[in-house]
Design goal:
The protein is an alpha+beta fold. 43% of the residues lie in helices and 20% in strands. It is built from twelve helices and 24 strands. The strands form five sheets. Strands 3, 4, 5, 6, 7, 8 and 9 form a seven-stranded antiparallel beta sheet that branches. A five-stranded antiparallel beta sheet has the order 11-10-14-13-12. It has a five-stranded antiparallel beta sheet with strand order 15-24-23-20-21, covered by helices on one side. A hairpin with a 2-residue loop joins strand 16 and strand 17. Helix 1 crosses helix 7, helix 9 crosses helix 10 and helix 11 packs across helix 12. The protein is flat and about 115 Å long. The N and C termini lie far apart (100 Å). The relative contact order is 0.07.
């Protein structure tokens, strides 16, 4: 094989190309000759048949279908819009009645004593009942408006029981309370049976009714407790020009949704579009008519399809009559009629392909016409087929002879190479060049490549064997180091079963095999408990070694009875004496006087502790930070004191908690941490740590853990 100016001469590629070129040219010539002959006969027959068929079918189908659809779709769409408008018209009348009654009630408040009320009860589930919900931090017993509004309980219950349209009705007072009537009281209870709270004045029906200053229909929203799509009608109530309440009613839209989804049949369906041009209800699962919630759905009036945008705009203004539109690659007949009560419109859609069904009546005429054409076509194709078979047979025989002659030179060295490769096993794994491979073409190049690859593979296997053994040794040692580090920290719970004055729990999850975070707690004497939370700079084995040394030094000074400031100063001096790697550790250390609940603490550059006194919420205790331990010699540290009342909690953590990062590079943050801590105020220390870890895991998702997660929680119970 020679290469001249980048062109290969005499190679395997040229040999195969020559053979294939001969075969292809012969096949193309034969096929072209037959095709030309058949095309002349076929063209004339098809043209005449198509002309007669199209004329007959088109004339009948278009005239018939457009006449029927224009009449039927307009009547059906108008009826559907009337029925839906009647539903919301009744709801509007109900809310106007509630508004009038509430206005009189608040205007003559002195004539009505406070009416009793109660929270939602599980035993009332499935039975129409009145119950009270409130915003977080609002006490219904302190409300002067709620007792007065509760006088509407009977009228709300009566209207709810007599209506098949309402899913609930309510009165929201301006001081953050809600009197509700429904048969779903259990949906307002948590898993432990306590009533859920509701941000009354921030609900869309409350805000939008107040902003409008009159009766108002919301968009389609999700119910706070059931998650069902709902629409709410609400109206404000004023006394002497001042807002005192908002009355309203819920309508679950499942009946409209189920009806709309049942309308799909052989390419036709009905959909409902709101005043913002968004598809609210439709049986379609994809495309432009796919339904979505109001906040997410696109406005079809802004669609890139100009015909669809114009149709939706017209349908919201008035009846459109029958129109033909192309949407999502299909042609449709459409008609729209707006509702009377809401600014919605009902649209009927029929796939234009259905109009072709009457063409089936024309197919009999087409079959007769086509039969004549097929007879002439078959006669011509039979002769052409015989000619084509003869030509193909001759070409195949010629191709086989040529392939056999050339393959004898190609296959022999390839077969020898295959046999040699199949014998490579055990100690004989080296492929070497032989004379049979020297064919002066690509086979010779392939054999040389195999020989080179075989030698490199043998060297690579030897290197991989050595690396694998070393990796297994390191992995074994790291696993042992992980267990040793876990055993170094307190890990037996309950830690002090004979001390009922307090309960403590801690955990440490390293980001790598071993971590740099650590916690510690131990009794200095019978009345003093020392607690430590620390974070060493860096990660992995170096941080773990520095962590163990720091823990031992801190514990040794603490057990000598030193104050927190003295412990920090002494530990810093010890670490700085021999810290050539310039590592450092942030530390929070506190000593609890068990008999009184007083804590003396010092902070060396660590995170703020979290404190919760009885009856309050978890909040950051923003203490003053000293310099990190190991960062600089001669640093003095200040300590401070605070008291834990019986029932108080102290939560300590490292920066791995607030700095946990999700896939979008967002930080978990202290606000989310405090929300997790406040989630269950009755949880014990172990449960507190678990609920924070669940919140972190849910936020981070599939993102990798970049830092150690270490937490400690103390619950002070006092002597009693």
């Amino acid at each position: 094989m020679k290469i001249i100016h980048g062109i290969k001469i005499g190679g395997l590629q040229q040999k195969i190309f020559n053979l294939m070129l001969i075969v292809i040219l012969a096949l193309v010539g034969a096929f072209a000759a037959v095709s030309i002959y058949q095309q002349k006969n076929l063209t004339h027959v098809v043209e005449e048949a198509n002309t007669e068929q199209q004329t007959a079918i088109t004339a009948v189908s278009e005239a018939t279908m457009e006449s029927v659809l224009a009449s039927t779709m307009a009547k059906t769409t108008a009826l559907q819009a009337y029925i839906a408008g009647d539903l919301f018209g009744d709801v509007k009348t109900d809310v106007q009645t509630f508004q009038a009654f509430a206005t009189e009630l608040f205007a003559n408040a002195e004539m009505f004593p406070p009416h009793p009320f109660s929270p939602p009860l599980a035993e009332n589930d499935g039975v129409p009942s009145a119950y009270v919900l409130h915003e977080p931090g609002v006490d219904p017993q302190d409300s002067q408006m709620l007792g007065l509004a509760a006088n509407m309980s009977e009228i709300l219950l009566a209207r709810f029981a007599s209506s098949d349209k309402l899913s609930g009705c309510f009165v929201g007072t301006a001081d953050g309370n809600l009197l509700a009537v429904s048969n779903r009281s259990v949906s307002c209870l948590s898993s432990d049976g306590t009533p859920l709270t509701l941000d009354v004045r921030n609900r869309p029906w409350y805000r939008q009714a107040v902003e409008a200053g009159e009766l108002f229909f919301t968009g389609v929203e999700t119910d706070s407790y059931t998650g069902i799509a709902t629409l709410e009608c609400a109206a404000p109530v004023y006394r002497d020009g001042e807002l005192v309440a908002v009355v309203g009613a819920d309508v679950f839209l499942t009946s409209i949704r189920d009806y709309v989804e049942s309308t799909t049949s052989e390419g036709s369906f009905v959909c409902v579009i709101n005043g913002d041009g968004q598809v609210l209800f439709s049986p379609m699962k994809e495309g432009s008519f796919k339904p979505e919630l109001s906040a997410e759905a696109p406005d079809l009036r802004q669609s890139g399809n100009a015909e669809l945008a114009a149709f939706v705009s017209d349908a919201l203004q008035g009846a459109t009559g029958l129109r033909t539109l192309s949407v999502d690659g299909k042609d449709y007949y459409m008609a729209g009629v707006p509702m009377d009560t809401l600014d919605w419109t009902v649209v009927s859609v029929v796939d234009k392909a259905l109009t072709r069904q009457p063409t089936e009546a024309m197919l009999e005429n087409y079959e007769a016409i086509n039969a004549k054409a097929l007879g002439a076509f078959r006669s011509g194709t039979q002769k052409s087929s015989q000619t084509f078979i003869v030509l193909v047979t001759v070409l195949i025989l010629l191709g086989m002879v040529g392939a056999l002659l050339i393959a004898s030179r190609i296959v022999k060295p390839v077969e020898h190479m295959t046999r040699r490769i199949n014998t490579l096993r055990g100690g004989d794994t080296l492929f070497e060049m032989e004379d049979v491979y020297r064919t002066n073409d690509e086979i010779e190049i392939l054999a040389e490549s195999f020989a080179s690859l075989s030698k490199k593979t043998a060297d690579y296997i030897e290197q991989i064997t050595e690396i694998t053994a070393e990796k297994e040794r390191i992995g074994t040692e790291l696993a042992l180091a992980t267990r040793i580090q876990a055993d170094m920290l307190p890990n037996t719970y309950p830690a002090f079963p004979d001390r009922p004055e307090f309960d403590i729990y801690a955990s440490m999850d390293p980001a790598k095999e071993v971590g740099g975070d650590f916690y510690d707690f131990f009794l200095v004497d019978s009345d003093h408990l020392c607690m430590v939370m620390a974070d060493v700079s860096g990660k992995g084995v170096p941080a773990a070694l520095f962590m163990m040394a720091s823990r031992i030094i801190l514990a040794s000074y603490a057990k000598q009875g030193m104050s927190p400031a003295e412990i920090m100063r002494s530990t810093n001096e010890t670490i700085c004496q021999n810290n050539r790697e310039e590592m450092f550790v942030t530390v929070w250390l506190g000593i609890l006087e068990i008999s009184t609940g007083k804590i003396r603490a010092a902070n060396a550059g660590h995170e703020y502790p979290v404190l919760m006194q009885p009856g309050g919420k978890c909040e950051l205790y923003k203490d003053k930070h000293g310099f990190v331990l190991g960062g600089m010699d001669g640093v003095k540290y200040k300590e401070y004191e605070f008291m834990l009342q019986p029932g108080a909690r102290l939560f300590l953590y490292t920066d791995g908690v607030p700095e946990a990062t999700n896939a979008e590079n967002e930080l978990f943050g202290t606000d989310r941490m405090l929300d997790a801590l406040n989630e269950d105020m009755q949880a014990d220390p172990q449960q507190v740590l678990h609920q924070v870890r669940r919140a972190v895991d849910a936020f981070v998702g599939e993102a990798e853990q970049f830092d150690d997660l270490t937490m400690l929680c103390l619950e002070y119970k006092g002597k009693e």
